[in-house]
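Data availability excerpt. The first of two example chains:
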Amino acid sequence: MMQRMFLRSLFFLTIVINLAPAATGLSSELYAVWAERHSMDFSELYYSRKQKDTWSSPQRIHINRGLHVTPVIAADNDHRLWFVWIEQTKTENILRFLFIDGEKRETGRVMSGEKEQSYAPSILIDKENTPWIAWSGIRETLADIYAAHWNKGKWSPAQTVNKANSVPDITPLLGMTEEGKIWVTWNGAREDSTYAHYTAYYTAGKWLVSEKTFPTQEFRDFARQRLPEGLSFPEQAGRRLMGALFTQSTKQVQSITDFFLYQLKH
């Protein structure tokens, strides 16, 4: 119970940005998505697109009435928009998706089953124009990292990214090497109750965890040097409860939670 309360309070903001080496500025096109809370059990999602220096008027995402949080957004090479977020109910935290392709829309749950507890999605588009998502989820008592990709009109079965252990794994961050290899890094607890950054690579259909871990300070320094300048939300998102930005100025695209951003600033 304590872990679930911690996870619920942790993932309030997600920013999807580019962490390419030596990034110094943003591309001319950005996408933003955010949640606005209207009551304790009702929030709506909005998105906007920035071309050159102008943000479009906010577009409401028409989904069921409920509490929708931690949205992320991506635009693929065919100009389709992909949204992933968590719907919080009294008993579940449901990982949901929506993609918009012109007049075509498809939405649903990423995973099937009952009493799902998912948190903090991250998203990217790979070199083959395939969307990937990663998230933290509780299946029994502890949080693990899961990942899936879009395959033949549906999400692939969720794969566990981290090694089996008896400690929580949280706040995943998706990325991609210059060669196109997908990786996930996350915060993993150690037996002494401290955290380190672990990384796994998708190879031959499965996730292989690197033996190297990044101390928190080392990881902060690595990320600070690669954050693009000028990253900011549109004014119309000023009342947001949480939100995400997306740019694909290069192919390394990441989703970053407020917990990660807090780490970078402190």
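And the second chain:
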Amino acid sequence: MHLFLPLILSVSLAACIKVTDKASDAHSYFSPQNQASEQLEPIIQGGDPHQYKVLIPYQDQVHLVRRTSLSDGADFTYLNPRSDEAGFIDSSVIAGQSYSYELGYYSDNEFLVIHSYILRIPLDLEVRGKLVLNENSNWSYGRIFFQKDSLLLTMGHRLEIKADEIISEGGLVETFPSEGSQPGKGRHGSVVSIHTQKARGFLKFIMRGENGAQGITGQLSRCEENNGPPVYNPGDGFVGQDGGDTGFLKMQIVQPHELQIEVNSIAGLAGPGGEPGGKCNPFMATAKQGHSGRSGQKQISCLIDFQGQHCY
């Protein structure tokens, strides 16, 4: 099933900014939802993973911006204004690190701070090639990039994703590979939960339960008759193993978006019954093949976005 929805482009920002106003010596914390965009969108995304820069608009009396890295304790540097820019530009930030920005001017050889900001640069994740989970995982990133022909194989582990944006150039999320099964019951597919502000591109999901294994071959049972030589009776094959359920996807996209997704849910097949036990001679009774196990169940996956809920 394909789902195609419209896109509204916007700039992703830091989740929280600390502002200090030296004039009033007041501190406040605020989030992007309730403030003016020119104050709250200083973090600008680049086109590639981990690529960001900071833009601090010009303000009255602000002649210089002093930046200090809070993550590695590096010495401060100054950002100088440029006539061809809309403000003070910092293109040397590193994804995942935090920085302090002090806005002010020099007076009598002393740097006077008018405002200050603490910004944390988002950390991105790039899925390239094949990535296999070996445990339940909880991801929180700025942007997640699924490169062309990339594969995220969950192997039945629970996966929870929170992101500012998901960008996919044809990635695939799959719970189990199509070939093979392990001995015993087929494992259930993963529970995949995704919450993102924005999304674009094409992303495919295959929610697959593992196939059940074949039942064990029937055993020969020994008995004695009139103190003669032992006689072995063939046993029926054992019941096949159950197939795994598909698992399910729950995806929520907050903003209007352009994302095309395809979701295939494939329940695990029932394992066939075990083969009957063999005969010692042609006059012995014939055993039966074991019964098949039960097939896995197809579970419901849903996408929730600005248009409502879409389940399939």
